[in-house]
Amino acid sequence: MAVVNLFYISLLLPPLFLLFLLFLIIRPRPVQIPIKKRHVFITGGSSGIGLALAHQAASEGAHVSILSRSMDKLEEAKNAIKLSAGIDVAIFAADVRDFEAVQRAVDEAGPIDVLIVNQGVFVAQELEEQKLDEVRFIIDVNLMGSFNMIKAALPGMKRSRMDRGPGSIALMSSQAGQVGIYGYTAYSASKFGLRGLAEALQQEVIGDNIHVSLVFPPDTETPGLVEENKRKPQLTSIIAASSGAMKADQVAKKALDGIKSGSFIIPCNFEGILLSIATAGLAPSAIILDGIC
Fold this sequence. Notes:
This protein is α/β, with parallel strands linked by helices. It has one domain (about 35-280): 3-Layer(aba) Sandwich (Rossmann fold), CATH 3.40.50. It is about 50% helix and about 15% strand.
């Protein structure tokens, strides 16, 4: 019996050795993406998570640019960041649905090191009741707006990588972009779309030393959530409450820490971690534990 066992062990050793060599060659390697003294460009940066991200990045010594539609809100955000961090930020008023306007803002802002595509609109309603114009608006802002922003910024990001080190493109998705939720047909579709965009984009830009991240926050205490709750279906509220709500600055810290470590998937709470494990699939990974935590 011992001879038989040794025989089978001898058969297993060569493939196991080859697997070990393969692991050493292709294993994911940790990435460090610095923030200090680098240009961080944030869309939807005048309120909510985007404003919290701008505060966080500025406090860490980044050169921050924020973009949103309202110049008045941008001025308020700029003054608030100046007051708290003592740092001036650049502000750009543009609608992410307008590629030419976005391109002008990016050209004026200069080379970007960390692009955080954070803009988003969400209106919870059953598809049967929701008007198609509203569905189209959600898709255009959340998904097409992200394409516009990345398309505008990517050439400059690629050109500057040799001199400026690793770059990052982070997309603000949602737990509703990991699992479909009642009342979120349009919103979930737009956020699921970001997953496909991010996975394919990572393959296209990793050779240029640009790392893609997907952030999956739960309900977050922002002005947008207040407006959403005014017409959210009761069942949607019950489901969303099961994951709890986070404060914008908590989400911002989780997001920025994940971006700095080059993580592809960035969950924000315990339920998000479980969802990330359940939905990891074939997502790219910068670290071994990405697929399990």
